[in-house]
Write a structure and sequence with these properties.
Blueprint (H helix, E strand, L loop, with lengths): L23 H21 L4 H20 L1 E2 L2 E2 H13 L11 H18 L7 H5 L1
Antiparallel strand pairs: 1-2
Helix pairs in contact: 1-2
Length: 130
């Protein structure tokens, strides 16, 4: 009888488990959530147990999300930073190009004006300097 073990194709996603099948990062984030959530629960419990549980959940949720969420190899903090950077950028990006034909027409007009001003004799100043 042979025992088969599945080995994932992508070995980058394998993380060393620290405690309770959690990584060190996840354990740290859950500890922070616990440290933040318990005092909030006891402070708000006076107004009702349900309200205390809801307040504890809202307080601990960011730390828990930071520990669990991972997408495309990026953690929640990095995704959040990229979202903020994206939202700060201008929404409308205009594509501007130079119309070469318009520039050529302007140059022709300038040459015509130079010819009129010089009394019919056209002097090309760029060539004269050389």
């Amino acid at each position: 009888m042979a025992n088969h073990i599945k080995i994932p194709k992508d070995l980058d996603n394998i993380r060393e488990k620290f405690m309770f099948k959690l990584t060190k990062r996840q354990c740290l984030c859950f500890a922070i959530a616990f440290i933040l959530g318990i005092p909030v629960y006891f402070l708000v419990k006076k107004h009702g147990i349900e309200l205390g549980i809801i307040a504890m959940g809202f307080t601990a949720a960011p730390a828990i999300i930071c520990g669990i969420y991972k997408k495309n190899g990026l953690t929640f903090e990095k995704h959040f930073k990229f979202m903020i950077r994206f939202l700060k950028r201008p929404k409308l990006r205009l594509y501007k190009s130079e119309n070469i034909y318009e520039l050529i027409e302007k140059q022709i007009e300038i040459d015509k004006l130079r010819k009129r001003l010089s009394g019919g004799v056209y002097i090309n100043y760029e060539k004269r300097k050389k």
